[in-house]
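ok trying again, last paste got cut off:
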Amino acid sequence: MQPSPSLPRATFQEQVLDQLGRDLCSGRYKPGQVLPSETELCERFSFSRIVIREAIKSLSAKGMLEVKRRSGTTVLETTRWNLFDTDIIGWRAEAIEADPAMSRDLMELRRIVEPAAVRLAALRASDEERRVLRAAYQAMVQAVAGEGDYVAADLAFHTTILSACGNQFVCQMQEAMSAILQASFRIISETPGGPAFSLPMHEAVCLAIEARDPVAAERAALVLIEQAESDLQDRLRSRRSGSP
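nice, full thing came through this time. structure:
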């Protein structure tokens, strides 16, 4: 068993949790299917029953599994999963090629949340938040030039906007939205020349927020999301076809 490098796990229980979560999201174990017995899982992972039980308990708390004394542990439908759980978002992102609905729904959520958040940020962002947004954009520019992590800078740019919109419910969603954004950015950034191509679109959003122009900010955000959606679908098609 090899834990995901993107989700480092410290304990045995966390390692089993991570691998089983990935198994569920990749379709190795499908909704309605009964998981292998504790004995079989102990043999697979070479860990004790206590470790396996704790991992199962954590996945049950996330809405992914249902444990019944006589019938075993059953995989639940994805509609019952806590889809805003950051672990689930990460696992599903890894298996996004096997789950076409994931990429569609992810981009639809961005269309629902981000344009409105950008519009509000243009109206409500503090001077400090505008400076932080500009700094995140500059970090993206530097990353494109080969100095820094583009995905981290891109994530900082968008999470700054979510925070600056000043809506308590959006702010409460920020951790989940950050995980969703990061999942898409990692795939989109694989597009040759994609990060450099997106810079003017990010700058348009930044300039509109700095100018306190909500209409221009929302319009720029929609252009950016449309391009991101196109890039995401292109990368997924390339992965499925095995193209470089």
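cool. The longest strand covers residues 65-68. The first helix runs from residue 12 to 26.
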